[in-house]
Amino acid sequence: MAVAPSSYNKENSYEKAISEVIYDSTEKKGMKCSWSGTRRTKHDSISSVDSTSSSESPFSDSPSCKSSRMNSVKKPSGRKRGRRPSKIDLEAKLERSRQSARECRARKKLRYKYLEEMIADKETYVYKLRDELEMYRRWCKAADKGAYPTELLEFIKDHGKNDK
To answer: Which intervals carry biased composition (Low complexity) (predicted)?
Structure first.
């Protein structure tokens, strides 16, 4: 009456459920599911370097450097390079953020559901093992008294054949 080990194998049901939820939610909104494996990073800025710092160059006497220094216009400080996002871009960004938050909440919900199911399976397995342990204790007490229950004899007979 040995209990088989518990193996929670639902063939990646958690991952499948997550991908289905994400696909369904993006399909309803008419959005494409596209993830890139790279992260966006800020580019290094050289805005702190002034155009006058080129005077320290060994080629500062050349006429091309002098003319370029004269034609250079100082950019107003405090502004970032690049274009400003339009209001449409901002709204699209907010919508993408909301969609991402919805997907994150759905994944979190599925993850907790999966973990709760796993806990329930483990608890039932523990209860079965406790029952089996109690049965073995009863058999040992009976054997110490000299009485051999029929279940014990059948168990020994069955497992005696399997071991040889």
So the answer is: 46-68
Contact 16, 110 (CB under 8 A): no
Does the model's pTM come out above 0.70? Answer: no
* Interval 18-73: pLDDT, tens: 777 776 665 665 555 554 445 555 554 444 444 444 445 555 555 555 555 555 56
d(CA 131, CA 127): 6
Q: Decide if 54 contacts 69 (C-beta within 8 A).
A: yes
The dihedral through the CA atoms of 141, 146, 150, 156 has a sign that is: positive
Strands (E), 56-155: none
Cβ atoms of residues 60 and 54 within 8 Å: yes
